[in-house]
């Protein structure tokens, strides 16, 4: 029984180490892996929208910082390509 | 953005600035510090800060694509699950016609170009010549 528990713990520990190493490689380093878990994963979602769904019409702010407009208002009867992103 | 130049006569484009992906006070990336443009910002805490970064971006890169900034409640980001970067195409009736994957690994502008090419045919204008530094 103790031997089973020991091997379970060792296997679990090995998996955790492997996952951390893999995440470090993916993120760019050990510190980046921690920061990725802390700051990126909470915000990264696949989302529930599907092709064919009505597009959400969130309100945005123009570059003058004051004018508001809705996303779909920028479609002039043509397809609208949305490019989401940030500077960094 | 070459796709915009190629297809702006057929489709509308809108860039939506959302919360920063790699600000100084969160998941900071060394590559941003090494970048010749030295892109280093803290995560904006106010709309004015967010708008200021968006203006810096559009001015630095003379970015031609129409631009909007997400409100501080991140309504657009949350509605489209957009962070850190993502592409969508809405059709004329306002329905999702293309949904890209989350960046950076699944962010693929080629899929947007293929969608537009399928509908309007291949369009490829010459890329603008880089500006000469004086």
Fold blueprint:
The complex is a heterodimer of chains A (88) and B (134).
Chain A: H1 2-27, H2 30-40, E1 59-61, E2 68-70, E3 80-85
Antiparallel strand pairs in A: 1-2
Chain B: H1 2-7, E1 12-17, H2 30-34, H3 47-60, E2 67-70, H4 75-80, E3 86-90, E4 96-99, H5 109-120
Parallel strand pairs in B: 1-2
Antiparallel strand pairs in B: 3-4
Helix-strand makeup class of chain B: alpha+beta
Classified in CATH, the superfamily of chain B is Glutaredoxin
Total helical elements of chain A: 2
What is the H-and-E element order of chain B?
Answer: HEHHEHEEH
Count of folded domains of chain B: 1
Topology-level CATH name of chain B: Glutaredoxin
User: Radius of gyration of chain A, Cα only, in angstroms?
Assistant: 22 Å
Top keywords for this entry?
heterodimer; A: 88 residues; alpha+beta; 2 helices; 42% helix; B: 134 residues; Glutaredoxin; two-stranded parallel ribbon; two-stranded antiparallel ribbon; 5 helices; 4 strands; 32% helix; 14% strand
Description:
The complex is a heterodimer of chains A (88) and B (134). Chain A is of the alpha+beta class and 88 residues long. Chain A has one domain (2-74). Chain A is built from 2 helices and 3 strands. Chain A has helices spanning 2-27, 30-40; strands spanning 59-61, 68-70, 80-85. Chain A has a two-stranded antiparallel ribbon with strand order 1-2. The longest helix of chain A has 26 residues, at 2-27. Chain A is elongated. The model of chain A has no long low-confidence stretch (mean pLDDT 86). With 134 residues, chain B is an alpha+beta fold. Chain B has a single domain, classed as Glutaredoxin (3-Layer(aba) Sandwich), CATH 3.40.30.10. Chain B is built from 5 helices and 4 strands. In chain B, strands 1-2 form a two-stranded parallel ribbon. The interface between A and B is large, with 47 and 72 residues.
């Amino acid at each position: 029984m103790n031997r089973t528990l020991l091997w379970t713990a060792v296997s679990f520990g090995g998996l955790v180490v492997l996952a951390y190493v893999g995440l470090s490689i993916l993120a760019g380093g050990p510190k980046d892996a921690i920061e990725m878990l802390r700051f990126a994963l909470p915000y990264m979602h696949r989302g529930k929208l599907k092709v064919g769904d009505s597009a959400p019409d969130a309100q945005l702010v123009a570059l003058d910082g004051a004018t508001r407009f809705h996303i779909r208002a920028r479609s002039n009867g043509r397809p609208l390509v949305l490019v989401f992103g940030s500077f960094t | 953005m070459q796709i915009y130049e190629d297809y702006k006569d057929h489709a509308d484009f809108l860039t939506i600035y959302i919360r920063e992906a790699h600000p100084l006070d969160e998941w900071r990336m060394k590559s941003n510090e090494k970048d010749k443009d030295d892109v280093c910002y803290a995560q904006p805490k106010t709309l004015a800060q967010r708008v200021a970064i968006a203006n810096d971006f559009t001015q630095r890169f003379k970015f031609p694509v129409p631009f909007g900034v997400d409100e501080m409640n991140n309504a657009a980001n949350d509605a489209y699950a957009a962070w850190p970067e993502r592409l969508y195409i809405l059709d004329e009736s306002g329905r999702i016609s293309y949904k890209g994957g989350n960046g950076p690994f699944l962010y693929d502008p080629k899929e947007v170009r293929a969608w537009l090419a399928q509908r309007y045919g291949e369009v490829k204008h010459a890329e603008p010549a880089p500006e000469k530094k004086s």
